Amino acid sequence: MLGTSNTEGSFAYCHAYKSPFSFITSCIFDLCGTLPSTDLFCSSAVQYLKTCAEKGGIFDADWESKVKYCGDAVCTDGYTNYKQSCYKFVPDRVTYKAARDTCEAEGAHLVTISSRAENMFVSDLGESERMWLGATRNTSATFSAYESAADDTYTLLPDRLTRGIGSFRFSVRSHSEAHLLLSSTKDIDDNTPLYEIVLGADRNKLNLLRRCQACSPRVEQRKPYLHKRRFRDFFVNFHEGKIQVGDMKNRELILEYKDPLPMRVRYIGFKSVSRVGSWKFYETEFMWDTEESWNFDNFRYGEPSNYESEERCLETNFLHPGLWNDHFCSEKKAFVCEIDGY
């Protein structure tokens, strides 16, 4: 752990790249989690990991959930505490609106999720049964459009990814050679550790993923997906080093790679090689009913799909514990109510 002689734990891989001790000399640990919602123990840890990533180091992307905190919430009867909130699983299967109304009648709300640890806690509380989450489709969500020149220069999206976000959707119109990168740093050269995804190499016959721009492919697949006159929709998931790239229309998995040394993804870049390409990157498609920040997701690959343009509500435990899916609000599912503890 950071600031100790223990070489195991969430920061173990970073020690080989950068000593942590200059970062924690004057650090006052904040184990009680006074920073809102994240339970960070001090800003020095964040700066250390930033330096580690810039030097190519690897660390546990879920390290915050493993930092101890001081005290759980006190809950009323029927609710179970987890950190500063209280949760109640309701096995009755009802529509989304009925579930939301039931929670609100108790002064609570349908559960919202802000971390991987909370996601698994809620999944376990619900005994892995499919159940509602307190989010609905953001009907005002839009996309950012870009034209990419036919050169070898990556354009980075302007916004750094929020920790906990592990998926995005994009569309591209290109004859061939549409490149994406997922990186922990803006300073990129041919040997910088990153995930580079190439769609439509070898005259739109080859798709591949590699660990740096100069590296050999880790996985590849031969099938044409790009079109020179039409936009094609794709998804990318990247939770805990598991990279999944797929065809959105058919929810077909194109590439999948499990990195033994996961890297946190902070930046997304794109470029078109040989021919000019057109790109669209889509905003978050859902929003919490409580209007709190959307800073975590865990969609199953190919989701949210908005089947028949009618899937406006969100569920968890879809096909596998903790995986999210959009679904029809009129379906009936179990649910979890959440309320602040005292």
TrEMBL record:
- What keyword terms does UniProt attach to this protein? Disulfide bond, Receptor
Please verify whether the record's keywords include Disulfide bond: yes
Species of the source: Stichopus japonicus
Superkingdom in the source lineage: Eukaryota
What protein name applies here?
Answer: Putative macrophage mannose receptor 1-like
- Outline the extent of the C-type lectin domain: 82-134, 267-338
Q: Does the keyword section mention Disulfide bond?
A: yes
Q: Which InterPro entries match?
A: C-type_lectin-like, C-type_lectin-like/link_sf, C-type_lectin/snaclec_domain, C-type_lectin_CS, CTDL_fold, Methyltransf_FA, VWF/SSPO/ZAN-like_Cys-rich_dom
User: Which SUPFAM superfamilies does this chain map to?
Assistant: C-type lectin-like (SSF56436)
